[in-house]
Amino acid sequence: MSADKRKTARKNRRVKPTATQLAQKRKKRIRLLTGAGVLIFTALFSVLSVLTYAWMTQTPMFSARFVMVAGNKHLTSTQVMDASDIQSGDNIFGVNLELAQARLIAHPWVDTASVIREFPNRIVIRVTEHQPAAIVELGRLYYINPRGELFARASEKKSGLALFKGVPRGSLPVSGLTPPVAIPKTERQEKIFRAVKELLPLLKQSEQSPSRIAVTAAQVDPDKGLDLITTGAAKRIKLGYGNYREKMDRVNQMFTFLEKKMRSETQEFKLNAVESVDVRDMDSVVIKPATS
Fold first, then answer.
1. Does residue 215 sit in helix, strand or coil?
2. Pairwise CA distance, residues 244 & 238, whole Å
3. Do 134-289 and 60-129 fall under one CATH topology?
4. Are the C-beta atoms of 281 and 241 separated by less than 8 Å?
5. Phi and psi at residue 186, in whole multiples of 5°?
6. What are the beta bridge partners of residue 229?
7. Spatial separation of the C-alpha atoms in residues 53 and 86, rounded to whole Å
8. Torsion 149-155-161-163 (CA) sign
9. Lower CB density within 10 Å: C or N end of the chain?
10. pLDDT of residue 222
């Protein structure tokens, strides 16, 4: 083949690409156009979202005309709103719900909390407050909840709540902190914590159903366990550690027996006739009569 023919053939190959090459070029253009379209759409959507959010969080249309507070008993509605840092007139979309909830739970009296927005102009705050189950003396007075956790300072001894004395520092956890502060670390502290927690339901039951024994305080001895300081049929009940419900049932059965026995002997049973009852060993209950 001559040089002119070879040159013409090469030129024809450059000018007339094959069908496969044309298809590949079309696909490449489509991919480029598609990618550019996606980028443009994403950019426009992002700008539109920012503008929409700015409008929603600033327009008076979504200002909270109503801030509803529910579940509070100890705290006032104003105190709850202050704790959440939410006020009437705040934009409902401008409020950080998670942050407001965290602020509420950080309040000593709040156990759980939820904050929700209701379209178009309402914010609803629901709280569950701690219920004082007793008071513990740790240099200062503190409330403890039914879980045996410290949760708030007590300004004074509240009527109807038993006072725990002698509890070593660090034995009771602090509510609302993750991980809880002062979780019992030693075996002795863990034992005291379990004892306090086990006794609290019995104290609640005693408050709701008054009996011949009224508990005013509980004295904690790390070695010997718990003693109840009471008024009524006995001044002190030595419980020790564990099985508190069974031990209190045994004490009540004992006083019922004594009352029946004295009535049968035409003797008057005095409510303060017993100095102490030692029921640490349920198989060997020791009763110490009161001195006249």
1. strand
2. 10
3. no
4. no
5. -95, 165
6. 217, 236
7. 19
8. positive
9. C
10. 92
pTM: 0.74
Say which residues have a Cβ less than 8 Å from residue 204's Cβ, sequence separation at least 6: 133, 146
Give the end-to-end CA distance of the chain in Å, rounded to a whole number.
141
Neighbour-count burial of 137, counting CB atoms closer than 10 A to its CB (0-12 exposed, 13-18 middle, 19+ buried): middle
Q: Give the lowest-confidence range in 35-39, 141-145, 148-152, 155-159.
A: 155-159
pLDDT at 255: 83
From CA 228, how far away is CA 230, in angstroms rounded? 6
Q: Is the dihedral of CA 242, 247, 248, 251 positive or negative?
A: negative
Predicted local confidence at residue 97, as pLDDT: 94
Cα 167 to Cα 27, 184, 242: the distances in Å are: 79, 12, 16
Tell me how far apart the alpha carbons of residues 279 and 72 are, in angstroms, rounded to a whole number.
41
Asked if residue 253 has pLDDT above 70, the reply is yes
Q: Give the tens place of pLDDT for each residue, 162-201.
A: 999 999 988 999 887 655 554 556 888 999 999 999 999 9
Nearest to 185 by CA among 197, 177, 193: 193
Fold of the 134-289 domain: Rossmann fold (3.40.50)
User: What architecture does CATH give domain 60-129?
Assistant: Roll (3.10)
Choose the weakest-confidence range: 4-18, 34-48, 168-182, 247-261. Answer: 4-18
Burial letters for 237-269: b for 16+ Cβ neighbours within 10 Å, e otherwise?
bbbbbeebeebbeebeebbeeeeeeeeeeeeee
